[in-house]
Request: fold
Amino acid sequence: MRVLITGGAGFIGSHVADRALERGYEVAVLDNLASGRQENVPDKATFYEVDVCDVDSLNAAFADFRPTHVNHQAAQASVAVSVRNPLMDASVNILGSLNVLTASVAHQVERIVFASTGGAIYGEVPESTRADTDTVPVPISPYACSKFAVEKYLECFRIEHGLTYNVLRYANVYGPRQDPHGEAGVVAIFCNRIMAGKGIQLNAMCISGDDGCIRDYVYVKDVVEANIASMENRIPDPVLNIGTGTETTTRQLACSLQEHLGKSVNVTPSGHRAGDIQRSVLNGDRLTELLGKSVPLDQGLGETANWFKQRST
Ligand SMILES: NC(=O)c1ccc[n+]([C@@H]2O[C@H](COP(=O)([O-])OP(=O)(O)OC[C@H]3O[C@@H](n4cnc5c(N)ncnc54)[C@H](O)[C@@H]3O)[C@@H](O)[C@H]2O)c1
Reply:
C-alpha cells in the first residue's frame, strides 16, 4: 500500500504516518506546515511541502508518489478561526479538499479516508443522549459546515467517479504532539500550563463557575487504529463516529490532569466562549464493535501527561 497522508506533519496525521510505516506501507506526507511541524514527519516518509490549495503542486506530488490510498487530515482545524475567517476556512477545508478528491480520481486512488468532525457536526447533543451517525447533522460553525460539505462531495465523487471512502467523525482527540499553543486542544493547553505552573481558565458551559462544557475525549491511538482499519478496508460503514460515548466536563479534565502531572494550579472560572457547543458526546458503540474497546480516559491522559512532562525536562 502506498499512502499519501495530507496534514501528516500535524498532530493526528503524524501518528497515522508512524503507524502506517509500522504496518509496512510506503508513506508520503503532504503538508504546508501551516500548523504542522516538519520534525513530526517520520524520517522514512517522503515529504512534500505542498498546500492543498496549490493544484499544480498537489498533482505533481500525486504523480510523483502514485498513492494507492489517500488519508486526508489536512485542514484548518479550529472552530474559533473558522468563525473569525470563514472564507479562509472554506478555501482550505472545502476547496483544498476538492482538490485532493479530484487528484485522487485523476490518479486512480483506490480509497480515501476523510477526517471529519463528530465534535462539531451534530451541534448541541441533548442531555442523556449520544449523537449517532444517523443523527441529522446541525453544523453551527463554518468549520462544521465545511466538513459536512466535504462529506457530501465524497458521496458525489463515489456516485460519479467510483471513489471509495470512509468518513471518520472524530470526537475531541487528545494525545502526545497536540499543539498546546492553539485555540483548540484543551488537554494539550492544560498540560502545558500546568507544567509551567500557570493557572488555567475554565470556560463555562452556561454560567461562570459551572463545570464547563461536556465533551467526549478520544485518545489519538484509537483514532489512528480507525484510520488504519479504514485504509485496510475493514470499516464497511461509509461514516463512522470515532468517540467513546463517555462524557467529561472541563473541570473533571482539569482535576485529572493536575493529578497526573503532580502539580496544582489556580483554576479561574470564566464565561461561556462564543461558538462553543455546550454538550457533545458521540455514540461509539459501532467503533467498539469493529475495533474493540477504546483506551480509557485515565490511561490516555496519563500517557499524554507523561509525554508533556518529558518534553518539558
Ligand atoms: N484534534 C481534534 O480533536 C479533531 C477533531 C475532529 C476533527 N479533526 C480533524 O482531524 C484532522 C487533523 O487535525 P489535527 O488535530 O491533527 O490538527 P493539526 O492542525 O495538528 O493538523 C492539520 C495539518 O494540516 C496541515 N495543513 C493545514 N492547512 C493546510 C494546507 N492548506 N495544505 C496542506 N496542509 C495543510 C497543517 O500544517 C497540519 O499539519 C483535521 O482535518 C481536523 O479538522 C481533529
Q: What stands out?
A: The chain has eleven helices and 13 strands. The mean pLDDT is 96.
